[in-house]
Amino acid sequence: MKFAKNLERLGTESAFKILAEAKKLEAEGKKIIHLSLGQPDFASPKHVVDATKKALDDGHHGYVLPNGIIECREAVTRKIKKLYNADIDAERVIIMPGGKPTMYYAISLFGEVGAEIIYPDPGFPIYESMINYTGAKAVPINMLENNDFSINPEKILSLINNNTRLLILNNPNNPTGAFTEKSKIDQLVEGLKKFPHVAILSDEIYSRQIFDEKKMPTFFNYPELYDRLIVLDGWSKAYSMTGWRLGWSVWPEKFIEHVIKFCVNNHSCVNAAIQYGAIAALDGPDDPINLMMEKFTKRRKLIYEGLNDIEGIECVMPGGGFYAFPKVIGTGMNGKDFAKKCLHDAGVAIVPGTAFGKKAIDYARFSFAASQDNIYKALENIKKIVG
After folding, report:
1. Domains, the chain, ranges and CATH?
2. Considering the entire predicted model, what is its pTM?
3. Residues 134-177: pLDDT tens digits?
4. Residue 365: which residues within 8 A CB-CB, separation 6 or more?
5. What CA–CA distance (Å, rounded) separates 75 from 86?
6. pLDDT digits 0-9 by tens, 198-227
7. How far apart are CA 182 and CA 217, in angstroms?
8. What contacts 33, CB < 8 A, 6 or more positions away?
């Protein structure tokens, strides 16, 4: 049996490998504190669950449109209007089974041999994986150049050439927790006017997890880019609905036909009933998000101070999301060795920085989507094994 050659270029998401290893250790009787996966440790909102149950009781059991039911797409446009005062046509919205399909389809639209796609490094591993899979050249943005991990507009613009097809951005950033302010986005957008052949994928999945009362500098602020802008967002992080596999994205009109073909060929449509739960989430109160952010704010302070209190570890205060990305090389270990020691000796599951890009060899990612008690215990356990 001979597999396709391009499978050799396909990467993976190491957080799930680490989860599997941690679960194996737990089955052997070892206690593990999970700070590896990027999912909130809160239940999905009750009114969302109830709306989904009602949809099932009401008989929403069949196929629906591949781009999503119109009621759900209209709910997305209402939320965009409420949050950002942007008017978006519901026909440009596509409901997806999670965030990854938007990445997959956007990269597939432009990726081929001879093309170049720019992406954040370190960044969500699926970006580089899918770029390589298509045969395009993956061109990294070095996110480690600035002390706060924020983007450098001039550096990004310098990477663009005639072969560049797509620019991928992620703000707030996974894995670094960096938040890039609107002034830098303004500067980048101004520079992008010189490159009308480049499409933009703005991954804004952590848009509702921003600290210090700062506002999300969404790309919806720039209607001049709408004819080449893809915005990715969804329900997973904001509403603690990771296992529902539910996301949305907004596309330029001229992209829609191609993206719907991808949907039909890949997943047909998103589960009918959960789209009614999605509507309830968007149209309902933001109380669950506000409560979550109150907890995350306390946890962020705890993990930032706790990591910096461990000899050999340097941590920048995260500006968004729920990750800390400390430099750990001062412990005498690189990120991979440090993460391995944390798991086996301290009983703490984290992710080495190289899971998000080769440049991050000296780093590790900690998720603070865990209880304060567990974060405190994890820090104490790590402190005992370092040094």
Report:
1. 5-43+287-385 (3.90.1150.10), 59-283 (3.40.640.10)
2. 0.96
3. 999 999 999 997 778 989 999 999 999 999 999 999 999 999 99
4. 36, 175, 323, 324, 325, 350, 351, 352, 353, 355, 356
5. 13
6. 999 999 999 999 999 999 999 999 999 999
7. 5
8. 347, 348, 349, 370, 374, 377, 378, 381
Q: Name the residue type at position 231.
A: V
